[in-house]
Amino acid sequence: MNNSAIGVFDSGVGGLTCVDELRKLMPNENIIYLGDTARIPYGTKSKHTIYSYAKQDIAFLEQHDVKMILVACGTVSSVMMSMPVFEDSTTELKSGVVLPAAHAACAATKNKRIGVIGTSATIKSGSYGKVMHEIMSDVKVVGMACPMFVPLVENGYTAKDCEPARFFANQYLEIMKREQVDTLILGCTHYPHLSELISDIMGTEVTLISSGAELAKHALKTLSYNDALCGRDCPGELELYCTDSEELFRENVQKLMDTNINAKISKCTLKF
Ligand code: DGL
Q1: Is the minimum distance from the CB of 10 to ligand 1 under 6 angstroms?
Q2: I need a surface site. Which of 29, 72, 157, 245 has the fewest CB within 10 A?
Q3: Which fold has domain 99-211?
Q4: CATH fold for domain 5-96+213-267
């Protein structure tokens, strides 16, 4: 048993898709979340910049005595497959989104044609494709970067009938329809906030895989396996940190989170 908090980070509000699922699966766990809103987007930055941001995010969470670190950011999760972002970390339990989402997609596909949408850095890294080819050697993987999705989500343009969001989604998803994928990985944790729109364009027969939600399911398995679930019998606390305006972050959180949250929100400064 371990009553320390689960640490989660992303560049902004995207990782809340993981937090939502964590709270459904493990309502009594304490969660500490960092959204590096002052430096978002990560997905358009170089590998080296993303690597140094990730190390600072991890160091921040470790100041809070966390028992596990969840990289609820597809971009960092992709970069960490080739760069040691955890090299100075002392936290044993950690995971990114790529492996859990890749496994879920391979389990879901019937025609072995899987689409991956993500940030430019994620798609350029080929991270999801590499893992899925190891799991299923004859799978066809189609990748597409969707750089406008993160600013749309961060600014609250997520509704199914939002014209600007639909304009970009139609363009980005055209290749997925043409390639007849039956499973689509939302490889950036911001994208599930657009899932109604994405599903409307792709059709309900296409399975959408939320990378953040898959990470939460993986966290439950890992914590159980390591006998590290909390022993609390009351609802856990949620502490949210951002690196830019607290007010803006609060507005976004209230718009985007599934469950009614009663979270403490604070601004923090990362050590550069
Ligand atoms: N939510 C992030 C991801 O999963 C990144 C968005 C960004 O900062 O570009 O990739």
Answers
A1: yes
A2: 245
A3: Rossmann fold (3.40.50)
A4: Rossmann fold (3.40.50)
